[in-house]
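agent> Task received from the user: take the single chain below, predict its 3D structure, and emit structure tokens. No templates, no multimer pairing.
agent> Plan: (1) validate residues, (2) run structure prediction, (3) serialize to tokens, (4) report one or two observations.
agent> Step 1 OK, no nonstandard residues flagged.
tool_call: predict_structure(input=
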Amino acid sequence: MWDYSDKVKEHFFQPRNAGVLEGANGIGDVGSISCGDALRLMLKVEPDTDTILDAHFQTFGCGSAIASSSALTEMIKGKTLDEALKVSNQDIADYLDGLPPEKMHCSVMGREALQAAVANYRGEVWSDDHEEGALVCKCFAIDAVLIEETIRANNLSSVQDVTNYTKAGGGCSSCHEGIEEILVKVMTERGDSFKPGAQPKEEVAAPAGLTNLQRIRKIEAVLEMVRPQLKRDGGDIELVDVDGKTIYVNMTGACAGCQMEALTLQGIQQKLMEELKEFIKIVPTKVSSLTRAMKG
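)
tool_result: status=success, residues=296
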């Protein structure tokens, strides 16, 4: 489990301003349920002064997403729109006494929801897909513009940093080369040099002293946790092999070839990264248990 601050736990278990805000005149929607996180931020703004009188949220996501949304609503109430727009994702994390690096994307999502809600109030068009930017991460629909802006704003220096803050690269990993190209560009401009394999900002170390057997048991424990839900839908998952940071699994039954297979694997991969506290990749195979037994 991640090391959450007491304030994060407080805002998760007792979120402020959750639910629909009656009379809201500024609404911002970001993220998507298919990507694992979605947030609606609702503002009630005094037209004469542009002061935020109230703010509520609805969030589909993890505990950090709920806590970040709760914190944001508390931070912006009483501010003018221009003052509120100065709140950064790092300000949200600081308000919560810090977020695990792997959960910083939750504070970024809150920042974007605020921008969207203010734009909605002002009658402006705002989009979180940055249509002018090339799509880099297809798994989570993250484009080059958002990645570059986040790298600049948070002084990021590794691919895992970018994944922590935006989720880009946290799925199939095929976009890592594209992320590296953006890192090289931004870091060169600020006088730094990109080093492949560099440690992420404020990286949380993997549990020390784990043997290969202990690591495999942790992986199997996560699979056991998700297995009942898969079986209810007529499917299952089995561990095939572990090769460094790549974990091979076999989807069986109704899960094999299902349209939701990729999304299911993304969710399992996220759970595995949370448990192992390291960046891993989960890869589906078509190797059956019988085939493996015959090869053995």
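agent> Step 4: summary for the user.
The beta strands are 26-32, 37-46, 51-60, 135-137, 142-143, 235-243, 246-253, 281-285.
agent> Done.
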